[in-house]
């Protein structure tokens, strides 16, 4: 079964306790793209206190770690915007 945006949202809520979170399935924008056969495309906008004082790379690693069991189920691409509270 293909991974859903709701499953991604649930995993991120459990792992990061975000102040705000939006998960968007962008797969329809990539129809015909070679990678579209390998899985779905998602965008994630997340604000979490766990990102305080972390580099962009470390923030992305936390997101990928939270999704580690879902990625093999069909996440082909993930666009991440990860901010700490108060950052614009």
Approximately how much beta-strand content do the residues carry? 25-35%
- Name of the CATH first level: Alpha Beta
Number of domains: 1
| Helical fraction | 25-40%
* Topology order in helix (H) and strand (E) letters: HEEHE
Largest sheet: 3 strands, mixed
* Gyration radius, rounded: 13 Å
Average residue pLDDT: 90
Give me the count of strands.
3
CATH level-two architecture: 2-Layer Sandwich
Backbone structural class:
alpha+beta
Give the number of helices.
2
| Poorly predicted tracts of residues | none
Corresponding CATH superfamily = BolA-like
Overview of the molecule:
With 88 residues, the chain is of the alpha+beta class. The chain is built from two helices and three strands, in the order H-E-E-H-E. It has one domain: 2-Layer Sandwich (GMP Synthetase, Chain A, domain 3). It is 26% helix and 26% strand. Strands 1-2-3 form a three-stranded mixed β-sheet. Strand 2, helix 2 and strand 3 form a beta-alpha-beta unit.
Throw out a few tags for this protein.
26% helix, three-stranded mixed β-sheet, 2 helices, alpha+beta, 88 residues, 3 strands, GMP Synthetase, Chain A, domain 3
How are the SSEs placed, and which strands pair?
Layout: H1 5-16, E1 20-25, E2 40-47, H2 56-66, E3 75-83
Parallel strand pairs: 2-3
Antiparallel strand pairs: 1-2
């Amino acid at each position: 079964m293909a991974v859903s945006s709701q499953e991604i949202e649930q995993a991120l809520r459990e792992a990061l306790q975000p102040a705000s979170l939006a998960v968007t399935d962008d797969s329809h924008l990539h129809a015909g793209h070679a990678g579209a056969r390998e899985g779905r495309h998602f965008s994630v906008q997340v604000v979490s206190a766990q990102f305080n004082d972390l580099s962009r790379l470390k923030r992305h690693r936390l997101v990928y770690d939270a999704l580690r069991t879902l990625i093999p189920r069909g996440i082909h691409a993930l666009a991440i915007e990860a901010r700490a509270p108060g950052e614009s």
